[in-house]
Design brief:
Protein name: 4-diphosphocytidyl-2-C-methyl-D-erythritol kinase
Largest sheet: 7 strands, mixed
Family: Belongs to the GHMP kinase family. IspE subfamily.
Keywords: ATP-binding, Isoprene biosynthesis, Kinase, Nucleotide-binding, Transferase
EC number: 2.7.1.148
Number of strands: 11
Bound molecules: 4-diphosphocytidyl-2-C-methyl-D-erythritol, adenosine-5'-triphosphate
Distance between the termini: 30 Å
Number of helices: 10
Radius of gyration: 19 Å
Helix content: 25-40%
Number of domains: 2
CATH topology of the largest domain: Ribosomal Protein S5, domain 2
CATH architecture of the largest domain: 2-Layer Sandwich
Catalytic activity: 4-CDP-2-C-methyl-D-erythritol + ATP = 4-CDP-2-C-methyl-D-erythritol 2-phosphate + ADP + H(+)
């Protein structure tokens, strides 16, 4: 038997850090939403009791370091599943980009194996399993648009933002999420973006207010480490994006655009100096 799952990328419309916790994680307030750029997973049942990961992408780990492998092992161990699975990952989300590609693959693996092995695990339990794999995984289990608190695992679903184009550009640099959080000084943040304001803008369907409310306190850290991210933001704004922000810990920058007529100009302008550029729709 085979199951197919789509694993969409996420962007953070706002991300605030409240304080560092005793367990080393940071208490955050984020509004996350999915975009129409997704990895595809094919999950094939195997009689042999093992987990095999394959992918057309030559640049991700295929062993126990892969988050889809970890998700499969977690569900197998926890529910005493004796059969195995071959998971093929058709990677389309750029890797180590701040778009939760690995987390979304892990979440899609949890959903897919729940169906493949007919385990009947309720969504909330899948999210709890996901939290053991990473802070972004619980959100990726359900997707949509949500306010995330705690270390990112406490979720409240909210309305979808107004439909728009999302231009994503990933500069060719590597950013470590742990390093970025490690450099945040929570009591020294000049301007905290407001989750409430963003939520109100979304609920009112007010695209201009959504753009005005974009904010991510991790930007200051990543921008200091990699000034080219700032240049990318400026280029996107100059080319006509309505609102621009870095996603997660970066380095991907996204631009929100309401008018389709502007998309080609922004896309082509960015392609001039950035190889990885995508123009996709927001997901409702
Ligand atoms: C930046 C975001 O992607 C925004 O959605 C998330 O906050 C990070 O999610 P993630 O990549 O799933 O993060 P995890 O794999 O759980 O953690 C990676 C590292 O980031 C740091 N980390 C992560 C989440 C959080 N709330 N506080 C942290 O300090 C920790 O040092 C942790 O060791
Ligand atoms: N299924 C996977 N797809 C992509 N990367 C994976 C996967 N499993 C493990 N990894 C590893 O995880 C690291 C982070 O990749 P990923 O694409 O998940 O980052 P990200 O988009 O920055 O995530 P986040 O936004 O949650 O911080 C990479 O170094 C990669 O080698």
């Amino acid at each position: 038997m085979k199951m197919y799952e789509k694993a969409p990328a996420k962007i953070n419309l706002m991300l605030d850090v409240l304080h560092k916790r005793a367990d080393g994680f940071h208490e955050v307030e984020m509004i996350m939403t999915m975009v129409d750029l997704a990895d595809r997973l094919e999950l094939s049942e195997m009689k042999r009791d093992s987990i095999i990961i394959s992918s057309q992408a030559g640049y991700i780990p295929l062993d126990e370091k892969n988050l889809a492998f970890q998700a499969a092992r977690l569900i197998k161990d926890r529910y005493n599943v004796r059969s195995g699975v071959h998971i093929h990952l058709d990677k389309r989300i750029p890797v180590a980009a701040g778009l939760a590609g690995g987390s979304s693959d892990a979440a899609a693996t949890l959903r897919g194996l729940n169906r493949l092995w007919r385990l009947g695990i309720p969504v909330q339990e899948l999210q709890e399993l996901g939290a053991e794999l990473g802070s972004d995984v619980p959100f990726c289990v359900t997707g949509g648009t949500a306010l995330a608190t705690g270390r990112g695992e406490r979720l409240t679903s909210i309305a979808s933002p107004p439909q728009c184009w999302v231009i994503l550009a990933k500069p060719p640099i590597n950013v470590s999420t742990a390093e970025v959080y490690g450099r945040v000084r929570a009591n020294n943040i000049a301007v905290h973006p407001s989750a409430l304001r963003m939520q109100q803008a979304i609920e009112a369907g007010d695209f201009a207010a959504v753009c005005a409310g974009l904010g991510n306190v991790l930007e200051d850290v990543t921008l200091k480490l990699h000034p080219e991210v700032q240049q990318l933001k400026e280029a996107m704004l100059k080319l006509g994006a309505d609102g621009v922000l870095m996603s997660g810990s970066g380095p991907t920058v996204f631009g929100l655009v309401s008018k389709q007529s502007k998309v080609a100009r922004i896309y082509n302008g960015l392609r001039g100096f950035c190889k990885e550029v995508y123009a996709v729709r927001s997901l409702s």
